[in-house]
Design a protein that fits this description.
This protein is an all-alpha fold and 235 residues long. The protein is built from 11 helices and no strands. Helix 3 packs parallel to helix 7, helix 3 crosses helix 8 and helix 3 packs antiparallel against helix 9.
Amino acid sequence: MLLTALVFGLLGSFHCVGMCGPIAFLLPVDRNNPVKRVLQVASYHAGRLFTYGTIGLLFGFLGRRLDLFGFQQQISIVIGFLMILVILLPTKLFSRYNGSRFMYKWVGKVKSALGAELKKKTMDSFFTIGFLNGFLPCGLVYMAVFGSVAAGGVLQGGLYMLFFGLGTVPLMTTATYLGNFLNATLKQRVMKVIPVFVVIVGVLFILRGLGLGIPYVSPSEKVAVEQQTASEICH
């Protein structure tokens, strides 16, 4: 599942460059000092990954609580169906009835804080910019959060979101150095692939929840419990 999170982040980063790219373009990096510039960009990504990892830990904790009540497999199936449903629903219908409007005030405060930090050039400001960037609403991040809930535990949830974030690093770094380098044709082609991949991930979560006894894809409930126990002992 961590591999799917990484690929999800890599594909999703084409969307990220369009949505969060302007933040990467505007980073006040030192254009005259290559070493310092690398450290500044790395600090920015560290802030984003910290936010994603923390969100993953929180929602992984929620998933773990559900697991204690014996609902983990059912949750995996439900989340798989939700992922597929979000893709199949008409965009206009989803945007009309989604619950993101209550977040407008919160998003406004985040953007204001981002604007203030973008005017600074201290090393800690790059981490703060990345940290705040991670809280901006994004449909692909929501899909990754679904995955962290179904990941099976606190650490697994955190790693799922962390790997998702790592997948976005290459393109976002390129955007920092080259600006808006993606042509419209390539972006459109990748954007068509993303819904297909989300459906595939949804199907994988459903299969995982069904416990069909397929190694690595849909382990039986007994094997899943043994793997979860072994993971908890190791950590």
